[in-house]
């Protein structure tokens, strides 16, 4: 996701984002030219865009924590996080980019060795979770709040929805008691949303 978001930022007027996967074998000669690379079979994930590209200075620093080209809007942690995830999985990441010619990230992740693995995971019978309590739901993103509200209602809960802390406090005061102990005070309103009576 971080690579895709950066690609979108690099193409403010549009462009192409391409994701490719392939199997790659890195031989000893290739591995010898790249410090930290071990020869072997890898999954190669390439994420490329047709955006503005990067100059040498930017390219050399992009994986550094808190390095950002977005000014105050960027935390500088996106590509550092990508780098950390790749390294935690014993992989490698390289970037190819030139100003005006787009950017390509190549990620090599080692393939798992073939093994006869038998998972001894007990299969539990599916249970239908249902509730009757009243829940105070606080979420500032309206789409997420509406989705969570609908899911809880479908499971039998009554829901008091609030968009932020202040709204939640006001709803709790009107509710007259903790939501979990006052389900009878909630009722359905229009659109399947719950409101306090």
Describe the structure.
This protein is of the alpha+beta class and 197 residues long. It has 2 domains: 109 residues, 2-Layer Sandwich (Heat Shock Protein 90); 63 residues, no CATH class. It is built from 6 helices and 8 strands. The strands form 3 sheets. Strands 1-2-4-3 form a 4-stranded antiparallel beta sheet. Strands 5-6 form a two-stranded parallel sheet. Helix 5 links the parallel strand 5 and strand 6. The two termini are 42 Å apart. The C terminus is likely disordered.
What CATH first level of the largest domain would be assigned?
Alpha Beta
The counted number of beta strands is: 8
**CA radius of gyration:** 25 Å
Note the gap between the termini. Answer: 42 Å
Keywords:
alpha+beta; 4-stranded antiparallel β-sheet; two-stranded parallel ribbon; 197 residues; 6 helices; 8 strands
């Amino acid at each position: 996701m971080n690579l895709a978001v950066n690609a979108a930022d690099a193409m403010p007027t549009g462009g192409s984002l391409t994701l490719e996967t392939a199997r790659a074998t890195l031989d000893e000669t290739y591995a010898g030219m790249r410090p930290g690379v071990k020869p072997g079979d890898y999954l190669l994930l390439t994420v490329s865009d047709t955006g503005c590209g990067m100059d040498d200075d930017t390219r050399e620093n992009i994986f550094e924590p808190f390095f950002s080209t977005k000014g105050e809007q960027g935390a500088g942690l996106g590509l550092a996080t990508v780098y950390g995830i790749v390294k935690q999985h014993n992989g490698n990441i390289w970037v190819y980019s030139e100003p005006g010619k787009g950017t390509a990230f190549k990620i090599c992740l080692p393939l798992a060795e073939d093994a006869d693995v038998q998972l001894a995971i007990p299969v539990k019978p599916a249970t239908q979770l249902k509730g009757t309590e009243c829940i105070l739901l606080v979420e500032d993103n309206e789409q997420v709040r509406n989705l969570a509200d609908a899911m809880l209602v479908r499971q039998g809960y009554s829901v008091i929805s609030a968009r932020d802390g202040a709204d939640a406090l006001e709803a709790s005061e009107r509710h007259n008691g903790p939501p979990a102990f006052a389900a009878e005070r909630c009722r359905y309103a229009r659109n399947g949303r719950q409101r306090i009576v």
